[in-house]
Amino acid sequence: MPAPDVNLHTHTWRCRHAVGDAEEYIEEAALAGLAVLGFADHTALPDGRWPDIRMSLVELDGYARTVRQAGERAPGLRVLLGAECEHSSGYAAWYREELLGARGFDYLVCGAHFVPDRGEWVSVFEGLDAPGRLRRYADHCVGAMRSGLYAFLAHPDLLGLAFPDWDADLAACAEDICSASAALGVPLEMNSYGLRKPPVTGRGGLRPAYPWRPFWEVAARCGARVVISSDAHRPEDVAAGLAELEALRSELGLRPADLPFIPPRARAAAG
Ligand SMILES: [Zn+2]
Ligand SMILES: [Zn+2]
After folding, report:
1. Which of 34, 71, 85, 183 is 20 to 30 A from 172, comparing alpha carbons?
2. pTM surpassing 0.85?
């Protein structure tokens, strides 16, 4: 199995919970033998919502410029400019016009860390065990994929942090997300950040927070395509866990995403 050489999910200090800037991640990526490095830091939002975990609007152009300039100085490594976005119909036009359009971002990723529920945003980490909320999470993810804005759906199994044990409701939620992914041709991301977080105690003992294996068994059955990412928040993690994810993807017979180099989808969304 060839070593994975693409990572499309990289943060920078601007999201306020990562360290390092583009140049340091690029250096580590070259050392790790990556061929493609995509930055997908948490985008700024036009209304300044959730300011503690993302860059501010005044930092957005500096982010884009820094990634582009660092990329130009990195021979042999293809550097892409992206952003991790919370999906909302209220932001969709701004993502399309400002990020993909005016600023020419190469791609967007949807990372659903919050779910809309009757006019409120609920955290995926805390609120999803209330009745009906898993259904809303699935609907939210499917709506994001349907929007055509995103190159892939990041860490759909972030649920592994919120629930200790797999059950029928989670299976139904996974089925909805994975079957929509296959039907719409929007890949799902298997993300190794969960391997670097504290393990979760379930009925069967300790397991990684994510990737959550039963989710990916559903993805395999549905024929969803899968991209693997490190979700690096430190330069030294730029390729962390990619080999483990590749092994799991291959063991489960998951189909790799066909992404080389994304812009067709971004152009379609922008146009
Ligand atoms: Zn994320
Ligand atoms: Zn991320």
Report:
1. 85
2. yes
